[in-house]
Design brief:
301 residues; alpha+beta; nine-stranded mixed sheet; 2,3-Dihydroxybiphenyl 1,2-Dioxygenase, domain 1; 6 helices; 2 domains; globular; eight-stranded mixed sheet
Length: 301
């Protein structure tokens, strides 16, 4: 009888968990400590041809403001390679730009972002515990250690740690990591990343306006997550996306969209999607020199 009662209780718990919204399930399954340092240390990774490297850095800083680190030539992979590397430190988000002089070793170039963590080994263990696969095991680079992980849905990210901790000012606005996944993978990604990041689901809209993915009149599922790593917006779509939707990895919040677009165009960028409005936002998609595509938006006051 005790075994039957145990099985009944286990089945009841499984039924409750299966019916939980993604946010509640993520909180239930979170594993490991919070290793986030802050969104001002988390960068978008941009790979460009060496010929476009300086033009991209100049265009991004002319558009958003900010400063740059020193441009260096380094090896940032565990196998032999050589790349130019420089960080654009803008008030609304960081870009880590790479211009390889050698072929890019696999799987580098697939990772969309680099997240600074307080302890790399602890972070890798926590990522695994929350469903991520470690596709590049921890290795040393010239200033610290790195690893690359893959979340459910095929979302690649870099985790990194510096020997000498960096000190950056807080951002004027926190950018959003824009993640496109299939509806089949969305809940898995949300559970895994939410648990790892100790984040919270801010909104889960199953009927978000399709104009946000280039399909006016349609709807799709949009989930917004906030954590110590910043913001993530999950786009769960059927994959029928007109260009350039899905190519933009980051959305940048600005105070004045028209003026920002004017600066971007003057710096050599092209507006791929003219400004449109949706649920309190004005937004546009822009291609910077070298082909880096970004979403830029302003929020109604």
């Amino acid at each position: 009888m005790r075994r039957i009662a145990f099985l009944f209780r286990a089945a009841a718990v499984a039924a409750v968990v299966a019916g939980m919204p993604a946010s509640a399930l993520a909180q239930t399954e979170a594993q490991g400590p919070d290793v986030a340092v802050g969104p001002q240390y988390d960068s978008t990774h941009v790979y460009v041809d060496a010929a476009d490297f300086d033009r991209l850095i100049a265009a991004v800083t002319a558009t958003f403001g900010g400063t740059t680190s020193k441009k260096v030539s380094v090896t940032v992979t565990p196998t032999p390679s050589q790349t130019a590397s420089q960080i654009a430190l803008t008030p609304i988000g960081l870009l880590s730009v790479f211009g390889y002089a050698t072929p890019v070793p696999f799987p580098f170039g697939l990772e969309r972002t680099g997240y600074l963590v307080s302890d790399l080994d602890v972070a890798v263990t926590a990522a695994r515990a929350n469903g991520a696969a470690v596709v590049v095991a921890p290795f040393n680079d010239p200033i610290g250690r790195d690893a690359i992980i893959e979340w459910p849905g095929g979302v690649f990210m870099q985790l990194y740690w510096h020997t000498t901790p960096p000190h950056y000012a807080p951002l004027a606005s926190v950018p959003e990591n824009r993640v496109y996944v299939s509806p089949d993978a969305a809940d898995g990604f949300i559970r895994s990343f939410d648990g790892f990041s100790h984040g919270s689901v801010v909104s889960d809209d199953t009927k978000a306006p399709g104009i946000e993915i280039g399909r006016p009149g349609d709807t799709y599922r949009r989930v917004r997550i906030d954590s110590g790593f910043g913001r993530i917006t999950v786009f769960a779509t059927d994959g029928h996306l007109p260009y350039p939707y899905g190519r933009e990895t980051t959305g940048y919040e600005v105070s004045d969209l028209p003026k920002t677009l004017e600066r971007a165009i003057a710096a050599g960028a092209a507006v791929l999607v003219p400004p449109y409005k949706s649920e309190g936002r004005s937004a546009a998609l822009v291609s910077f020199p070298g082909g880096y595509v970004a979403e830029i938006h302003a929020v109604a006051k």
